[in-house]
Specification:
The chain folds into three domains: about 70-170, Beta-Lactamase (2-Layer Sandwich); about 235-320, Signal transduction histidine kinase, dimerisation/phosphotransfer (DHp) domain (Helix Hairpins); about 325-470, Histidine kinase-like ATPase, C-terminal domain (Heat Shock Protein 90, 2-Layer Sandwich), CATH 3.30.565. The protein is about 50% helix and about 20% strand. The chain contains twelve helices and 14 strands. The strands form four sheets. A five-stranded antiparallel sheet has the order 4-3-7-6-5. A five-stranded mixed sheet has the order 9-11-12-14-13, with helices on one face. Strands 1-2 form a two-stranded antiparallel sheet. The two termini are about 60 Å apart. It binds adenosine-5'-diphosphate.
């Protein structure tokens, strides 16, 4: 059933355009529009500037050729270059024609070129200049004109008149209109091109991602040892994605293996007492038994049930302390817990305590009791011939260090690594039939870690085992 759902999900048809591709295309279009708009404004502004400069250059050149045709006689200005303004430039009306008007300072017309009469009037706006040129754009009827004004002087060097020279802006306007039309006509094609190109680019850039996704989709719980094989630099986004997913798969694989190992071990450990109970029950039920025999069976059943309860209790405690940090909760005094709860449990054993007085720890004091009880219990249990155990606790470099030492058989270096694993028991303890389920040290390590501490095991000298636990010290004022 589960497999069906997975294969259904994997075989789901991929949409032609995913949400991400659509979003990228939309952004591309918005950005393109903004670029198109600004580049058009920019082109129009630049073209406008260039064309206007050209017109202004033509006008000033012509004014400079015209000015010598004016002569100052007494107080008046005389025009002597009639041949100049009889040329076609001043008589016809086309895009190359010049329109000349000269007005005195009282706005009286002194002179105009022939083409003005045919063209109609050109407005004269008396300029507020006393030298140089003044340019402006004016409209006459439906015609647009570029105009230059320049003052003319009498012999006292006073402004006596203004020369106005105009040209039509026909060519100029048509260039501008062409630019705008050209852009507007091309817009739909460019837009289509942008849409296709951005779809293509978006799909192309997501191709490796899709490849990684489809490889990842094919990695299921059944083949968790498979890894994504994709060539990319580890610093590259896709390389990082590949490594992150592969690391995740590794962690999942380890955890799933641990879980299945744990289920195996737990079932095995629980199966032993259950099988013993079942065998005993089958045996006793075969025929009528004496009261004594029934009693023996009940005692045996009781012992096996105790075993199961002990295993399940340990597993429950491990689960409880694995689920979250116990640090940050209560603060308790180490010597007091030892005095009140540990010493009474081991009062018949030869245990030497050396506990500094003012040591405080943060966490569950109940958890701390389980730690110390288990370590002392093991020390006593495994050094059967010589159960002398030393427990000492002192403060060292902002840490509280607690040692539990014995003079027992010790633990080989290869097994030191494994004794904290769930259900692990050393070969010698199995061989010697020392009771236990291999859960005690796993429990101890889990609680130590939940209190933000650490635990290690060393050889004791001259012989035996030394467990060293270290916790961050708590300052109590
Ligand atoms: P259990 O004692 O129930 O077997 P533990 O998790 O407490 O499980 O210990 C794991 C293994 O570590 C034990 O089987 C034992 O072989 C070894 N061990 C633990 N403490 C000692 C010790 N003090 N001396 C020698 N071996 C020890």
């Amino acid at each position: 059933m589960e497999k069906d759902i997975f294969s259904l999900l994997n075989n789901r048809r991929k949409p032609l355009f995913t949400e991400t591709v659509r979003r990228i295309v939309l952004w591309d279009i918005i950005i393109f529009f903004l670029l198109f708009l600004t580049s058009n404004i920019f082109t129009i502004a630049i073209t406008n500037k260039i064309l206007t400069n050209n017109l202004d250059d033509r006008l000033t050149n012509e004014v400079e050729t015209l000015l010598p045709s004016f002569q100052i006689q007494q107080d008046t200005i005389k025009f002597v270059g009639y041949s100049e303004i009889k040329e076609p430039d001043f008589t016809t009306i086309n895009s190359g024609a010049f329109f000349l008007q000269v007005y005195d300072i009282n706005n009286r017309l002194l002179l105009n070129s022939d083409n003005i009469r045919a063209f109609g009037s050109i407005p004269f706006n008396k300029p507020d200049i006393s030298e140089g040129y003044k340019f402006e754009n004016i409209t006459s009827g439906e015609h647009k004109l570029r105009v230059v004004y320049t003052p003319m002087f009498d012999k006292h060097n006073h402004v006596a008149a203004f020369l106005q020279l105009s040209v039509l802006r026909t060519a100029y306007s048509s260039v501008m209109t062409k630019i705008v039309y050209f852009n507007l006509l091309n817009l739909p094609f460019i837009l289509l091109l942008i849409i296709f190109v951005s779809i293509f680019l978006a799909k192309k850039s997501y191709e490796p991602l899709n490849k990684i996704i489809s490889i990842a989709e094919n990695i299921s719980a059944a083949n968790l040892n498979a890894r994504i094989q994709y060539t990319a630099h580890p610093q590259d986004e896709l390389g990082r994605l590949r490594d992150t997913l592969n690391n995740l798969f590794t962690r999942l694989e380890t955890q799933i293996n641990q879980i299945s190992q744990f289920t195996d071990n737990a079932s095995h450990q629980l199966m032993t007492p259950l099988t013993a109970i079942k065998t005993e029950l089958e045996y006793i039920l075969k025929r009528e038994r004496t009261t004594g025999e029934y009693k023996d069976t009940l005692v045996m059943l009781n012992a096996q049930t105790d075993k199961m309860i002990s295993i399940i209790k340990s597993l429950l405690i491990i689960a409880k302390y694995s689920s979250g940090s116990e640090a940050g909760k209560n603060v308790f005094k180490v010597s007091q817990v030892i005095e009140d709860f540990i010493k009474p449990v081991f009062r018949n054993q030869n245990i030497n305590y050396e506990i500094a007085d003012n040591l405080y720890l943060r966490g569950s004091s109940e958890g701390f009791q389980i730690i110390i009880e288990n370590l002392i219990d093991n020390a006593v249990k495994y050094s059967r011939d010589n159960p002398t155990v030393a427990v000492n606790a002192q403060s060292f470099n902002n840490n509280i260090v607690i040692n539990v030492e014995d003079n027992g058989p010790g633990i080989s270096n290869e097994e030191k690594e494994k004794i904290f694993e769930r259900f692990y028991r050393t070969a010698s303890s199995i061989k010697e039939n020392i009771p236990g389920y291999g859960l005690g040290l796993c429990l101890v390590k889990t609680i130590v870690q939940s209190m933000e501490g650490s635990i290690k095991v060393e050889d004791n000298s001259p012989a035996g085992t030394k467990f060293i636990i270290s916790f961050p010290a708590v300052r109590v004022i």
